[in-house]
Amino acid sequence: MNELEQRVLAEIEAGSDELVALAGDLIRFDTTAREPDDPARDEAALQRYLGDRLGAAGAEIDIWEPAPEDVAGSRLVPPGLAFDGRPQLLARFAGAGHGRSLLLNGHIDAVSVEPRNRWTSDPHSPVVRDGRLYGRGSVDMKGGVAAMTFAAETLARLGVRLDGDLLVNTVTDEESTGAGGVASVAHGVRADAGIVTEPSGFDVWVACRGSLMPTITVAGRPGHAGLPQPHWREGGAVNAIEKAALVQEALRRLQEDWRARADNRHPYLSPGEIVPTLIAGGEWIVSYPASCSISYHVAYLPGQADEGGWGNAVERELEEHVARAAQADPWLAEHAPQVSWSTDVPAAEVSEDEPIVEAMLAATAAAGRPGRVAGMNSWHDGATYTLLAGTPCICFGPGPIEAAHTVDESVAVRDLVDCAKAVALAAIRFCRSAARA
Q: Is 245 a member of any domain?
């Protein structure tokens, strides 16, 4: 490290209490993930808080409330989703010119605190115990947002003007729809590369799986469960739950087939999966169920996606497999299962040869927390910027992903500090001009 980089790291270390306080302030805002019709919570107040901080540090601030048409037609977003009271934020620290621009991105929403009664302390009242910061969102991902914000503030406070622009972008709705990222891309947010500070445990994630969420509804024929039933062709009852079990078995066999296929292998991701997650069937305990619905979470790899990263081919394969299974059963052959689809969350990956990957690996090693190239089996907003804005995004952040969405969620204070150091170093090194690289 050169003298400037050493100064930056020392400044972040000296400001560790301020960084923890910043993360705690973010936790205090209730930005719980929403259903589409939920009223706004504290999203606008949180974005104003960050905007005031970053503006005071010298950034040009843009806080805007997207219109529904900004995300209309996206396979990620439910139709008609509105952003009332849920603005997005972009802070731009202008570079000196001729350098690469870098996007720092994070989402401000966090999942529900339920079951609330199992928490040791109030999930919206941050507390430090035994070197860990506790509170909802501490690791997923208000801790990461705090670290990237503090990294940018520290560079500005020390008068470090990068050659390229440094952008800090915080968005809503990642946990529910990904709409905030889609709206930011529609607003023109893009850069030469991006870092999403999700909890990667200091690894550099270059890939993520996509996901589909189909619901398959199977029809039956109601009848008295306490009476013997004739054959269905003679008017007898048909048990929709039993027929739905045939569909479930067919999809279990499809998942086994996926595991043997080359397009379902990836060096950094687990194979694609077809997991039943919800089931609803029946109307009365003494009646044959008239219908049964099973909802699935279908995870797919970048190699299974189409050119845009979407799961169109996976949708077709699943529908064809269900149709073939139905043809093997006389009732289902005449009463075909109905498949409906909700959102499509795209798979994405960036090349290990991208300059941001090299810069991030070197920076985290220099900060004393060496990581490795890896992938995220779930999804992150970086996929949206990679696919829709042409901004190759990696994930790098404090804490393990396994700590997300848990009771007594927490992140190590040491992780917050080291993440801020690594992000600041990566920004210095990536945003150099070609003449200084």
A: yes
Distances (CA, A) of 49 to 22, 55, 61, 62, 169: 10, 10, 12, 13, 13
Phi, psi at residue 7, to the nearest 5°?
-65, -40
Q: Is 334 in the same domain as 246?
A: yes
CB 216 within 8 A of CB 244: yes
- What CATH code is carried by the domain that includes residue 129? 3.40.630.10
Nearest to 247 by CA among 206, 227, 213, 276: 276
Give the model's confidence band at 435: pLDDT under 50 very low, under 70 low, under 90 confident, else very high. very low
Contact 92, 191 (CB under 8 A): no
Chain segment 319-374, per-residue pLDDT in tens = 999 999 999 999 999 999 999 999 899 999 999 999 999 999 999 999 999 999 99
Nearest residue to 270 (alpha-carbon basis) of 399, 372, 376, 198: 376
Q: Are the CB atoms for 110 and 140 separated by under 8 Å?
A: yes
- What's the predicted TM-score (pTM) here? 0.93
40/171 same-domain check: yes
CA-CA distance, 194 to 165, in Å (whole number)?
A: 12
**123 and 49 assigned to the same domain:** yes
Q: Which residues pair with 207 in a beta bridge?
A: 349
CB 367 within 8 A of CB 421: yes
Computed on alpha carbons and rounded to an integer, the radius of gyration of the chain in Å comes to 24
Helices 3-14 and 16-28, axial angle in degrees (round to 10): 60
Q: Please state, in angstroms and rounded to a whole number, the distance separating the CA atoms of residues 346 and 389.
A: 14
Q: Same structural domain for residues 238 and 138? A: no
